[in-house]
Amino acid sequence: MSEFGPTVKAFLHQLILAIFVVIWLIPIYTMVINGLKSEFDVTSTPVFIPPLHPSLTAFAAVWSQLDVPLLNSVIVVIPVSLVATFIGAMAAYYFYLLSVSKRRSLNFMSNTIFSLIALATFMPYQAVIIPLTRIEANWGLLNTYGGAIFAFILFYIPTAALLMSMFMAVLPRDIIDAARIDGSGDLRTFFRIVVPLTIPGIISTLIFNVIEMWNNFFIPLVLFNVAKQTLIPVAVESFTGGYGTLYNESFAAAFLASIIPLLIFIFLGRYFIRGLVTLGTGGKGAV
User: Residue 97 maps to which CATH number?
Assistant: First the structure.
């Protein structure tokens, strides 16, 4: 009986994993098959039933309207996510140095600044959108890529700093102290030691920032009044009309809008999991 124990346990693990994979794939499946249906079929057949006569008409119609917003989102989100993650990692390392300092005043300053960053991270967009809009209007940034970039950097650098601080907390202090004894400056230590040790955390933070920015609806809704300059979440919402909705086009639009985050998570998802493992094991899982 003991021989079958590990086999049964492994089978149950695989079965549970398969169930979760199926659940995760259900939204993608429904978006694809309903995007392939005609307008009549999508309203007259159950949502999980594949189309008898699949057609790319809805996808073609949607793509002609989403190609520019999709490109706008790529231009804005990807570079801003990289910049926000990098600056957030440097800020987190600075807080780490303050927190391990023997001077109590520096520890107090670290805790104070960290609390302010946490407050900025969880502050709702609605609370600051009016002053943000006025600032961008005075600077001529409304309806521009620069305005969206400024807003996203403002909101997501604190998020990156907060996330990276959790990964920095598990850094082996002895390694940092040894680098300082050898005469390495803070900047060199950050690039030569901290970055390699926290790569899973950096990639996890980058993925989180990309997905959050990509799906952010409120900021581009307020900052863009020109349809051709808006970002993908607002463009997708436009397929839900006030007097009627073409559901096959709505499904197709939702799928096309989710392609970039899906690809990022598919190709970098293992690093995201490694980051979580690293955080949970106190840094022992960093690979």
Answer: 1.10.3720.10
Provide the mean pLDDT of the chain. 83
Under 8 Å between Cβ of 154 and 88: no
Task: Evaluate whether residue 129 is within a structural domain.
Answer: yes
Distances (CA, A) of 273 to 1, 23, 205, 215: 34, 19, 11, 21
Which DSSP category does 240 fall into?
Answer: B
Rounded Cα–Cα distance for residues 240 and 234 (Å)? 11
The pTM is what?
Answer: 0.83
Look up the domain containing 217 and give its range.
75-232+267-280
Question: Are the CB atoms for 23 and 13 separated by under 8 Å?
Answer: no
Residues in the chain: 287
Q: What are the distances in angstroms from CA 205 to CA 20, 79, 87, 242, 279?
A: 23, 14, 12, 37, 12
User: Which pLDDT tens digit goes with each residue over 223-257?
Assistant: 887 766 789 999 888 887 655 678 889 999 999 99
Total of domains in the chain? 1
Report pLDDT for 214: 94
Q: Is residue 25 one of the residues assigned to a domain?
A: no
Q: Residue 257: exposed, middle, or buried by beta-carbon count in 10 A (0-12, 13-18, 19+)?
A: buried
User: Does residue 86 sit within a domain?
Assistant: yes
The continuous run of DSSP H or E covering 252 comes out as: helix 247-280
Beta-bridge partner residues of 245: 240
C-alpha distances (whole Å) from 242 to each of 189, 247, 257 are 56, 13, 21
What 3-state DSSP class applies to 56?
A: coil
Q: Residues 147, 241: contact at Cβ < 8 Å?
A: no
User: From its phi and psi, is residue 55 left (phi > 0), alpha (psi between -120 and 50) or beta?
Assistant: beta
DSSP 96: H
Is 286 within the bounds of a domain?
no
